Amino acid sequence: MMDAALKYYNNPNYTWFPNDNINYDYVSEDISFHHTSDYGSGRMPYNNFLNITFISILVICIFGVVGNGIVIWLLGFHIKRNPFTTYILNLAIADFGRLLSLIFAIVSNWLTILYDLSSILSVSSIFLFLSTHTASNFLLTAISIDSCMAAFFPLWHRCHRPPHLSTIVCVLVWVLSFLLSRISFIILQMYNNEAVIRVLYQFIVNAMVCFPLVAAATLALFINVCCKAQQHQRRKLFTIILLTLLCFLFLGSPLNIIVTLHFYIYILSYVVLLAFVLSCLNSSVNPMIYFLVGRERKARHRESLEVILQRVFKEEEGCAEELQPPVQIQL
After folding, report:
1. Which family would the database say this protein is a member of (predicted)?
2. Comparing C-alpha atoms, which of 224, 252, 217 is closest to residue 141?
3. Cα 286-290-292 angle, rounded to 5 deg
4. How many domains, the chain?
5. What angle do CA 252, 94, 224 make, to 5 degrees?
6. Is 220 a member of any domain?
7. Which domain range does residue 182 map to?
8. 144-186 per-position pLDDT tens digit
9. 214 near 249, Cβ under 8 Å?
10. pTM over the 0.85 mark
11. Considering the domain boundaries, does residue 11 fall inside one?
12. What percent of the chain is predicted at pLDDT more than 90?
């Protein structure tokens, strides 16, 4: 997956990241980690950069796992479910799994002496990352489209939207994500001598489909929220959605774009690893967005995340009631 994952799937020394114990005879020549343009005068500077990157990813992932875990617990067991919380809950699950997979990947890289355990962790972490990464992209695309429908056609969205549409969409997203990940693994087995990053074609789907849709929906939603005064009562909810989508465009999308470009041109390992750091930030920042936007600035006491989430989604339900057409009583 990562650019460091240059070993083919069935190699007993297989790992996500470069390691001195790896037999680099299995590595494709065009993207070898010994490429002089990647490391300059020697390999040691890159190793230092790699270790710093690993530690940064690990710290970000730990905070992100805790934050998304809290969101999953609150939305799953303590807050009344509605169409929007269904999307947010599944998005938190996808981000939680993606961050957990990167933790597994780093641990497997540090346990390369235990080859059997390392191989199991590497394969599991790659499959988990592929599935949750794709699910997160698809869920954000669905959220952006649904939010635009709610902003431009509020009455239709509240009165005629299928009640279980969010649940159906989330189920389809997870099924499609696991299916694409399985196809990627089949391709990995077919291209034994190719770099992992070169055969993950589902990133092209994320870059070519999800990114344009989210970008267009984000722009439309931003214009709608800023121009229409009646959206004031839902400003916090739409602000959360906008910030979440913007974080995806600037933090999550670079990884899809860089991997897609890597199919055609050589990309430095530094760039790919930095894209993974940004992707970790994208998966970790959403709980902070919910907290900072949803809290009351003039509140005398510090509010919990549960109270903040309840306020935001209660605001959503209140707007839904206001948008219901009045009932006419015939005498």
Report:
1. Belongs to the G-protein coupled receptor 1 family. Mas subfamily.
2. 217
3. 110
4. 1
5. 55
6. yes
7. 24-323
8. 999 888 888 888 877 888 888 999 999 999 999 999 888 877 7
9. yes
10. no
11. no
12. 33
